[in-house]
Amino acid sequence: MATRTAARGGATKSRASVAIPQLAWNQIRPAPVVLVTGGEGFLADRAIRTLRDALKAEDPSLEISDLDAADYAPGELLTLASPSLFGEPRLIRVASVEKCSEGFLAEMLDYLGSPADGTVVVLRHSGGVRGKKLLDAIRSGSGDAIEVVCTELKKDAEKYDFAQAEFAAAKRKITPGALRAIVSAFSDDLAELAAACQQLLSDSAEQITESTVDKYYGGRVETNAFQVADAAIAGRHGEALVTLRHALASGADPVPMVAAFASKLRTMAKLAGSRGGSAQLAQQYGLAPWQVDRARRDLQGWTEDGLGRCIELLAETDFAVKGGGRDPVFALERMIRVISARGRG
Length: 345
Hints:
- The chain has helices spanning 41-58, 76-81, 102-112, 132-139, 156-169, 176-185, 190-201, 210-217, 221-233, 237-249, 254-271, 278-285, 289-298, 304-324, 328-340; strands at 22-24, 33-37, 63-68, 90-95, 119-125, 145-149, 173-174, 207-208.
- By secondary structure, the protein is α/β, with parallel strands linked by helices.
- Helices cover 53% and strands 10% of the residues.
- The longest helix has 21 residues, at 304-324.
């Protein structure tokens, strides 16, 4: 039986039921079939991107194709996997396997019996029972596959380890205090934490210290802004209000507060009522797949009317905090109350 190397908090299946390697997101490698599972969309996107870059570095003539398992046309997989005239290697990325059609399920199961030479098929399954027959077949050893487990990082210790690995990979030193500060500031969103780490890595200082973190994120103005927005959009009015007042007491400016709300609400508005897989919608709207997933989670419990009202109020609040109103703090608190009620308050 293949050795299983699951990520922390990763797969919980018994060794008896899994006959293929289970790897962490940063251990991804080529295989005829690469199954990428788990709910952490950011890590899944990064893993697939890493695989793409490695294959392209090995052979720049790599042909890359994308499929959506939920909106699959018969024969697409075999057409894309068929040998080309010049024999270029192929990477086929398949999104939304957790919503796969019966046609895709049948053809992928057949494909496992005889994977195409020189082709890597990446299957992204974010969770749920749909496609279980396919997952079981892959995990039993069909298709000479590997599984890459991208479980959500929920604990602070996991996020700390992630950030620490970001600096270690870049061979940069960061003090424990600076690392704790950046993880605490961006603990709510892994993608934002990764972006913050990359910003710090762009600094020319030999060692990243607390003063480096303060240079870029002093007062945690933007961080607090997104924390306030996240709490309000999720309906946690009290938490949003307390976080707002703490941010303002720490010197935060109301203008970036409103900008944080605007960023999230506009993305939600783009995706409200949209259909299709994360990869397809990300390409359509110029977003990353993880942003699509996040916006869809944020939209739970909202109505189009409520979202519209909040966007109108957002414009009014933006005007008020930029000098058009007498009390910008009152305008912010009113906006938070209405958004926490999802436009119904």
